[in-house]
Write a structure and sequence with these properties.
By secondary structure, this protein is mainly beta. Helices cover about 10% and strands about 35% of the residues.
């Protein structure tokens, strides 16, 4: 029985939604989020730790080629919608096509959102920044940073912070670890890989989940009569392209931008998923990757205004007439200031389960080149370590780890020791410093800790608050039954 995506089911869902809309809040302007620039290759992308993986700046959030001032992406973020075990529709957006806002907020390295304004680890980390690299969040079994490209980024956020609640439905209650990868090689210089590890932290099962980016890709000036962007898609490639048929005024050359699913969730519903479209209907068997199951277009005047309408879009339904039409074909014929969502679903996500999604952002000057680059991105993802990185990163976060202190050697200004507590529950943790003779000098930590990454500072003083002499010191982490030691050097 092909029960998923049927109009009957989705219409029924409509009547189960609570009609009480909770008043929303938009974070005050003073609560500025962390933003870093991805600029290792031909792209110049502003990315954040608050849901917008391309964050709008003055005029644009994604420029290509870097340094040209030519904007191709105004803003982009992940949307996640689901049906709870109680039958309620919930949705969280990382980028709203109408307001540009996000319902996600930063968290620190332990997943705590309450200290996002004061904890320095609640930020975007770049592998090309020496300070960020010294506190890098992805490490191998030896405690060394795992960096895969010429520029990696790392950010973590969730939708639990009430300061970011301004939808009309409940939030999905998920946490996302967002990483990106960019290479400045001829074959990959026009591509940035964005990976999202999406964890269900709601405490219950999320059913009929849809996930995908919502984007406002403004190629050049899209205001008023200048709005002339067009869109097309390639179902076989899981690819969306935004382009123009006229050259942008004042530009020497006008290109196009593409988004491609390189990794999508698998159909774990136990039934065949039927994608209904007027031209591209298809069936997805249990266990197969879902790919791009919907591509829906809208303009600012036509934008969905409620979370339920956004959920319908993710599921491939026209929210204004409740007609299932998974892929909007009209975008190539009608120019305008376009927004779109491209989604993958439905699938189910159990409590504390994680699903991984990877999207390539690509630029080129013609369709043939862009499609070829998207194939290159897929091939690179499938045949290199990048294709397996999500599983290895998840495994590394389950380990107790002790990382090299920084700086090392260090003076009287002190050093910072980072460590990670793995597992799934609270464990006894101690972090102690010994001199070269094995005598205890300082106890930095002696407590129970839950899984996460922590920092401890040492100022070169003993437990008796006396300055210790310069030399080699041993620091030892004991987490549960695991013991790890490293050396550091204190200089005058």
């Amino acid at each position: 029985m092909k029960k998923y995506l049927s109009l009957f089911l989705l219409t029924s869902i409509f009547f189960t939604i609570s009609l009480a809309a909770a008043p929303g809040k938009i974070p005050p302007a003073s609560k500025l989020m962390s933003t870093k620039i991805l600029n290792a290759n031909a792209w110049e992308i502003y990315t954040s730790n608050s849901g917008q993986f391309v964050k709008p700046q003055t005029g644009c959030g994604g420029f290509w080629p870097a340094g040209s001032g030519h904007g191709y992406i105004y803003g982009t973020g992940i949307l996640v919608g689901a049906i709870t075990g109680d039958g309620d529709t919930v949705l969280t957006f990382g980028y709203d096509g109408a307001s540009g806002g996000s319902q996600f907020g930063p968290v620190d390295t332990t997943g705590d959102w309450t200290d996002y304004l004061t904890d320095s680890t609640a930020r975007v980390f770049l592998s090309t920044d020496s300070i960020d690299l010294s506190q890098w969040q992805i490490r191998d079994a030896m405690g060394d940073p795992v960096v895969r490209s010429h520029q990696d980024s790392y950010a973590r956020y969730n939708d639990l912070n009430p300061a970011f609640f301004y939808g009309d439905s409940g939030n999905t209650k998920i946490e996302i670890i967002q990483t990106s990868y960019a290479w400045d090689t001829p074959a990959l210089k026009d591509i940035v890989f964005f990976h999202f590890a999406v964890k269900n932290i709601s405490g219950g099962v999320l059913n009929n989940v849809y996930i995908g980016p919502g984007a406002d890709c403004d190629i050049g000036n899209e205001t008023g009569s200048s709005a002339n962007d067009r869109t097309t898609f390639d179902c076989q490639r899981n690819l969306v392209i935004q382009f123009q048929t006229e050259s942008e005024s004042g530009w020497d050359s006008t290109g196009m931008v593409g988004f491609r699913y390189l990794k999508s969730p698998a159909n774990n519903t136990g039934d065949t998923v039927t994608v209904i479209d007027n031209q591209f209907s298809r069936n997805i068997a249990p266990g197969d990757n879902l790919g791009m199951t919907a591509f829906k277009l809208f303009t600012l005047q036509q934008a969905p205004s409620t979370d339920y309408e956004r959920y319908l879009q993710l599921s491939g339904i026209n929210y204004w007439d409740m007609v299932m039409d998974a892929y909007d074909e009209w975008g190539a014929n009608i120019p305008g200031d376009k927004r779109f969502v491209m989604s993958s679903g439905p699938f189910n996500l159990g409590a504390n389960e994680t699903v991984k999604v990877c999207v390539a952002v690509i630029a080129a000057y013609d369709t043939v080149t862009l499609k070829a680059l998207s194939d290159t991105a897929q091939l690179y993802f499938d045949t290199n370590a990048l294709g397996a990185f999500s599983d290895s990163d998840e495994a590394s976060r389950t380990l107790h780890q002790l990382f090299p202190n920084a700086p090392n050697p260090f003076g009287r200004s002190g050093t910072t020791i980072s460590y990670q507590v793995g597992g799934s529950g609270s464990v006894p943790v101690s972090l102690k410093i010994y001199n070269i003779a094995g005598q205890l000098v300082k106890t930095l930590v002696n407590d129970h800790k839950t899984p996460g990454r922590y920092n401890a500072a040492w100022d070169g003083r003993s437990d008796k608050d006396q300055k210790v002499s310069a030399g080699i010191y041993i620091y030892r982490l004991q987490a549960g039954e695991k013991n790890i030691t490293k050396k550091m050097v204190l200089i005058k």
